[in-house]
Automatic annotation (TrEMBL):
Keywords: Cell cycle, Cell division
Family assignment from sequence similarity: Belongs to the CDC123 family.
A Pfam entry, by short name: D123
Compositionally skewed regions (Acidic residues) per UniProt: 59-74
Subunit structure: Interacts with the eIF2 complex gamma subunit EIF2S3 (via C-terminus); the interaction is direct. Interacts with the eIF2 complex alpha subunit EIF2S1. Interacts with the eIF2 complex beta subunit EIF2S2.
Full protein name: Translation initiation factor eIF2 assembly protein
GO CC terms: cytoplasm
Regions crossing the membrane: none
UniProt organism field: Rhinolophus ferrumequinum (Greater horseshoe bat)
Phosphoprotein keyword on record: no
Taxonomic path: Eukaryota, Metazoa, Chordata, Craniata, Vertebrata
Keyword hit for Cell division: yes
Region (Disordered): 48-74
Function: ATP-dependent protein-folding chaperone for the eIF2 complex. Binds to the gamma subunit of the eIF2 complex which allows the subunit to assemble with the alpha and beta subunits.
PANTHER family to which the protein is assigned, alphabetical: CELL DIVISION CYCLE PROTEIN 123 HOMOLOG, D123 PROTEIN
Length: 195
């Protein structure tokens, strides 16, 4: 496979040609700070999640017994990164597509990460759902770091851009692709045009 073929297989290359024949989707450029967060190996901390409900009845009869957690001042507090503009764009896109999407990047969906989702599927309703899947997926990491790893030609890799840019016509802009969730949640399909 040649790098040119890989470029032609990305969603943004074929979707405009087949828009009327395929699932309605929204394509958004990934800002650099979102890309940095997704590639960061640190602890996954997402915002926009409600805490799970607490139990009203204790398990034991001894209601006076409480667990005392450490108030160690050296304990670091992890805070979720905030991407207000991007979060708004993503939520507007999700709402315009019926409230649920099947997220992917240019080439890959996080098929290897469905197990970590609360619903054990790739169905996402918020950016936090998308981040959870993307940060847990080797397929998504490969889209970011090695999209041409299986190519046999020795041409230079196209420039990897992380924001939409017209300066580099052969560059690859990493994009968040949000297809409406219109298929069975247990699978995905991809369409390739050989012309």
């Amino acid at each position: 496979m040649k790098k040119e073929h890989v470029l032609h297989c990305q969603f943004s290359a074929w979707y405009p040609l087949f828009r009327s024949l395929t699932i309605k989707s929204v394509i958004l450029p990934l800002p650099q700070n979102v890309k940095d967060y997704l590639l960061d190996d640190g602890t996954l901390v997402v915002s926009g999640r409600e805490d799970p409900p607490t139990r009203s009845q204790p398990d034991s009869d001894d209601e006076a017994e409480e667990i005392q957690w450490s108030d160690d001042e050296n304990t670091a507090t992890l805070t979720a990164p905030e991407f207000p503009e991007f979060t708004t764009k993503v939520q507007e896109a999700i709402n315009s597509l019926g409230g649920s999407v099947f997220p992917k990047l240019n080439w890959s969906a996080p098929r290897d990460a469905y197990w970590i989702a609360m619903n054990s599927s790739l169905k996402c309703k918020t950016l936090s759902d998308i981040f959870l899947l993307f940060k847990s997926s080797d397929f998504i990491t490969r889209d970011f770091t090695q999209p041409f790893v299986h190519c046999t030609d020795d041409s230079p890799d196209p420039c990897m851009e992380y924001e939409v840019s017209t300066a580099s016509p052969i560059g690859v802009s990493l994009l968040l692709v949000l297809p409406a969730l219109a298929l069975s949640e247990c699978g995905a399909f991809e369409n390739f045009d050989s012309s």
